[in-house]
UniProtKB/TrEMBL annotation:
The keyword Oxidoreductase applies. InterPro entries: ADH-like_C (IPR013149), ADH-like_N (IPR013154), ER (IPR020843), GroES-like_sf (IPR011032), NAD(P)-bd_dom_sf (IPR036291), QOR-like (IPR047618). Residues 13-325 form the Enoyl reductase (ER) domain. CDD domains: QOR2. It holds the Pfam family ADH_N. It comes from Ciceribacter ferrooxidans. This is Quinone oxidoreductase. One of its GO terms (cellular component) is cytosol. Keywords: NADP, Oxidoreductase. One of its GO terms (molecular function) is NADPH binding.
Length: 327
């Protein structure tokens, strides 16, 4: 059996539990291909699995990571849609923090020749998240006014550009002058310094007291329930992450009190559950990137062996935009 290297988590906890180890690499099984990764995406969901906030599907030990791009090096029995040499990417197949791995073809999409593999690795999870949020969770278009928390994050920078291309008025929050400037260069009309300003009051000022149609919230506890106070009557609060911690259980009557609001807790994987849904989502993303309406900027890279430092920087908010681990 061949060998490769991967980051293994043997115990739940802080970034120190991330360790590079030599692991076995079997031949791909039926319905699988083997991939040599060019780059692996770093996402906050990786932290949730590392700490145990989200439960790893197969228990301990496990290889974290859900997003990467690379080249097919072998195919398993019955695989007809992919062949050796194909450039592929995925989001949603656990075990991405590895030099090489096997992955079921149901998770894969082919990467267009015009898109570098590093760019594909940087945008699959974040970009497809932006796609479903803006196009399917709440249909953004001309006249939409929205608030996007963590505007300088990986999803935020993609969503700001995409929402602006769709004709929306785009308001964001960020936590430093550098991040505010970064978001303003990526589609945002206004960016609020949440560390120094009352974002609810600023949203009301910017909207003439009306509020926004939709709040996209990946922060969670630290901005709840104030996010609800930013919404118009019958507006929608979209909680798609919890970087500051989970929102505690709340009384549903709060939605009525604040204007007959809607609330949803979506996840990408429910939106790409079938091969057809995955292909449609990915192709929409590829199209908007190839059109140059959305730029994918890789702001930080770390060697795969430095996954611990990458997690430390992510959690301490030292990173902005997209981060890659390079095998």
């Amino acid at each position: 059996m061949a060998k490769t290297q991967a980051i293994l988590i043997r115990d739940l906890g802080g970034p120190d539990v991330l360790r590079l180890e030599e692991v076995d690499l079997a031949a791909p099984a039926a319905g699988e291909v083997q991939i040599r990764h060019a780059a692996v995406g770093l996402n906050f969901i990786d932290v949730y699995f590392r700490t145990g906030l989200y439960k790893a599907p197969n228990g301990l030990p496990f290889v974290p990571g859900k997003e990467a791009a690379g080249t097919v090096t072998a195919v398993g029995l019955g695989v007809t849609d992919f062949r050796v040499g194909d450039r592929v990417a995925y989001a949603g197949a656990d075990g991405a923090y590895a030099v090489e791995r096997n992955v079921a073809t149901r998770h894969l999409v082919k990467v267009p020749d015009e898109i570098p593999l590093e760019t594909a690795a940087a945008m699959m999870l974040k970009g497809m998240t932006a796609e479903y949020l803006l196009n399917r969770t709440y249909k953004v278009g001309p006249g939409t006014v929205l608030l996007f928390h963590a505007a300088a994050g990986g999803v935020g920078l993609i969503a700001g550009q995409w929402a602006k291309a769709l004709g929306a008025t785009v308001i964001g929050t960020a936590g430093s002058p550098e991040k505010i400037e970064l978001a303003l260069r990526h589609g945002y009309d206004h960016v609020i310094d949440y560390r120094n300003d009352d974002f609810v009051a600023r949203v009301k000022d910017l909207t003439g007291g009306k509020g926004v149609d939709v709040v996209y919230d990946s922060v969670g506890r630290d901005v709840f329930p104030r996010s609800l106070d930013c919404l118009k009557p019958r507006g929608m609060w979209v909680l798609f992450g919890q970087s500051s911690g989970p929102v505690e259980t709340f009384d549903m009557s709060l939605l009525a009190q604040k204007g007959s609001l809607y609330a949803t807790r979506p996840s990408l994987f429910a939106y790409i559950a079938t091969p057809a849904e995955l292909a449609a989502c990915a192709n929409s993303l590829f199209d908007v990137v190839r059109s140059n309406k959305v730029r994918i900027n890789i702001n930080q890279t770390y060697p795969l062996a430095d996954a611990r430092r990458a997690h430390e920087d992510l959690e301490s908010r030292k990173t902005s935009g997209t981060t890659l681990l390079i095998p």
